[in-house]
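Team,

Forwarding the record for the chain on the shared tracking sheet. I've put the sequence and predicted structure together so nobody has to dig through attachments.
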Amino acid sequence: MTTNDVSSRPKRAPDALANQIYGLLVVGAALAVARPGAQSRWSVFVDVVAAATVYSFAHIFANLLDRRTHAARALSGAERLEIATNGLLILRATGLPFVALLVCSIFRVGAGTSVTVALWLLVAELAITTWVASAAIRPTNRRALYALGATALGLVLILLKIVTH
């Protein structure tokens, strides 16, 4: 059994990866439009967490409604828990930006530079997450296309930051 054997991997809900990537994009968009000149690092982080929280709960609500409507029956507790757990993956995307803002704060880096560092790290996390998650995709050049696509989305966030400032 190789590490690329899909059958040996733990089972996951099909939308878990999508929610993680969506969360990275939501957090990246919030960082891209942050106004660090008018805000502290911490208010930027609070805004990012608030945006991710709103999107996360909106996503959970929309998925609960969709699954309930599609199933034409009440959802079990396990089904609701699965939807909520997957929706909360959006919040996980705030981890790396928080660490970046914290480290930049410790080293007294300016708020604008801190946000830029957090955004670039998020773009790297987006590319790496997609590369690792797409391990089952063969051939490798197709896997690379997915990672490049995710990186391109991240670079669009950098462009958004440049254009809005």
